[in-house]
Write a structure and sequence with these properties.
With 571 residues, the protein is an alpha/beta fold. It has 3 domains: 214 residues, no CATH class; 173 residues, no CATH class; 132 residues, Rossmann fold, CATH 3.40.50.2000. The protein has 15 helices and 22 strands. Strand 15, helix 11 and strand 16 form a beta-alpha-beta unit. The longest helix is centred in the N-terminal third of the chain and has 25 residues. The radius of gyration is 30 Å and the shape is elongated. The relative contact order is 0.08.
Length: 571
Amino acid sequence: MAKSTQKKVSGADLPTPAHGFFFAIKAWGLRTLRAVKDALAGITRYGREDTWDNAALLGKSSSELWHDKDTAMGLTAGKVHNLRLASAQLDGTVVPAGQVFSFWKQVGRLTKRRRFARGRELREGCIIPTTGGGICQLSNAIYDAAARAGLEIVERHRHTAVIPGSLAETDRDATVFWNYVDLRLRAPFAWQLCVKMNASSLAVSILSSSGAMAPGGSPKQRREPDALGDCTQCGRTDCYLHVGDIPLPERKTWLVTGEEFPEFKAWRAQNIAENDRAVSCTGRTLGARWMNFWSRAWRQYHLYRRHPLPLAQNSRFMRAARFLAKKLKESDTYLIIPQELLPWLQMLGELRGRRYEVLMNALPVSEIERRLDEATAMYPDVFPLTNYRAAVAFTRAEHDALAGACQLISPHAEILRTAGSRGLQLPWILPTPPAINAKGSTDSGDELRIMLAAPSLARKGVYALREALREMPFRTLLMLPPGKPEAPDMWKDLKVDYAVSMADGVARADIVVLPAWIEHQPRGLLLAVALGKPVIATPECGLPTELSWISVAAGDAAGLRQAIIAARNGL
């Protein structure tokens, strides 16, 4: 075949399909040879740990993910997606003293099967789209941080040309391509690689517990940038590598679990745009059915073993997050995420380089535990207040993910109070009062009927309610929703009536109370408001000031008693 006489924008010969074929054969041979050498040399992958406490920062490098001058933004999104996957493989890597760190060994092959997408790759003077493209932004940053940290550079390759604005302009770049063009580092001490991404930037840090090394030499200036051809914009449609512009769709991606507040469902129906994408784990596909079967089975197993409810729920949400993560594309750059998925997506690395909003259906775990600790200090012998605390990694993941959110959305006033300026208030949807069967009524005479709008659990404030009712100056009938109390003798000194349902109890009650330490979904209180019943609750129940209710402090039995007396006098 005659050699092409046409030139690329960079001045090199225009490639042909034959050129691509021989390039692939050559690459295959070089990969095989390098794989054999690495096996003989013992090049291996290293484990990852949480960021070391009190570690010395040896070197750091950061760069922007998105640039206004970028063309084919779809490829830029692909690059960010590739960086997201690769950084999750690298973050926390601990390299033992004297051992060689291999970028390619640690990250692995950049294939579609591993969810890597098309991004920008610099090859022979042109920027072309290829699977795994853009990963060099990460290798550049690692090399830059390593050079500043004074690590030994075992292997490093410069790019074939300089992209304006990149680290190549100051000779701080390190290209990688399969395993035979690699970045390899070594140090006489153990060190840790930390890779963080937020919605706009990539940051790489090198840490050591043995003290900082001498910083690397000042960067050398490289040649002026060469002329580069962007394969999507150069206009050379006769090149076999040419592709047209790849735009990035302007849309939001909504993650749906099927277990959501009606307020969130209504808000999504009002705000989802025609171009938006919904990703659900409630479909009828074989994969969705299989995932839901096993997640529900594990949830029931935890409940059967009497494990705390949050542990059982998290077992299901972990599987839902993994299922939905596999459905996310590189073009899904803005997410709307249910809170129950948030820590798992954070630990999977799926939030790196993405913007997102969170549908908040609960207080942050750290705040829940703080409030439970307050309750435990008041009732130290109540075991249910102390039997569940989340794993440190889970709590940290949720904290970090919430810190990176653009907006926190909830109808719950107390949750939004912790969100600060990023909170978006949704109105609670008041339920339609149901028709109650008259057979469910109980004639209580002159007794004051008080309905507890939650199960008899310690975190719902039942100990304060019990104390308040025991010293009441008039007769009371405590009405409870169906279900056994947490402690068998909880209400032994009080007159109690179990309602057929929450709606039945609220409808027959004179006053509805919920002195909870924690309450995320106050449906019984909302029904009472809709029925015009007096409502006494703690701010932790999340009712807004616009609704009519009486506020008492959690754990304040005397204040609760006075509120009930005042409400009775107002009837």
